[in-house]
Amino acid sequence: MACNKKSTTRLCNRSEMTSSNSALGKSLGKQLEESSKEGKGPVENRYSRHFDLPFAPRSQNVKGRKQRSLQSVSSKQHDPQNTVVPKLTRTLAPKGYSVQPIIPAAKAELLPVAQAMHGEDFAPRVKKLFDPEREAALDSLKTGVYIGWRCKEFKHDCIRVGKDSKCFCGHCLCDHAQCTGESVMVPCSMMRCECKAFVFVPSRPEEAGEFWLQRRPGYDPTTWRAKCKCKHSHEEHHPSGFRRCKHKGCGCSRFFSIFLCAACDRHWEEHETFFETAAVRKKAGMPYGEAYLPFHEFPELRNAVLTGSCDDNRKYEALSSGAFAIPDDSPTELALRLRGGFHQTRD
Description:
single chain; mainly alpha; three-stranded antiparallel sheet; 9 helices; 5% strand
């Protein structure tokens, strides 16, 4: 009997719910009909998620609007111009704050970035890196002979060559015959050396763009040698002719560099060594005199190369003005005063 009572109560509850749903559906149907007769917009059925109203009437306006919305959506998906987001005419900022537009720099300021990265060590590192080129530039100002390593079509030197620069034969420039501004072939003066002409070759990893080698713990930069694609160094090739490899069993018939120039990213065999005077360089439109100094166009870097400090320009002033002005064509006794690295005045 208890089960029968429970079942009857459940049936009664269901009947009540269906009757209430039917009453609600009839009222909504009347609202829809009245709104359509009065000319008002159609009323959406917000209770369809909670109640089953299969008999609720739907006006033709609702159906037509849905079809138009679907057509507009499909047309927007196919038309890429309609999908572009319109630009905002104004920017939003919190109260009390002003908004400034972010404009990218037309030219990257590399020097401030490098100074911020290295701090106080920046200028001393620059000076150490360009010590050989600084000495080569000062020697050129002293003797009037400019020795540069560059590609033939360039109007600037990739590397300034000095007396301590290495030749392909493995000997320095000071171990070769005396050169002038009109020299073409400067043979080596060392015993049993087959070198017939001085040809510059990088002797430091920095000159070949391999800057990371200096960061290795215990690395000795004096052991670095410029290598060929056959994995043998320039000292293991013949210093003249096609510079074929000396190793037995190596099929290398010519030296092809495995490295690139740090200044122009081109191979060693694309460069040449030039001996010139200031007059020749002036006629060719190339830098000479004080313009031959490293980073002459950047005063801060130029000062760092000369003195190890970006703000100390005393040495450059001594070079470019007064009685110690840099000569254009003729050598002077300037180099004797430059070696001390201090400012002097003439009596």
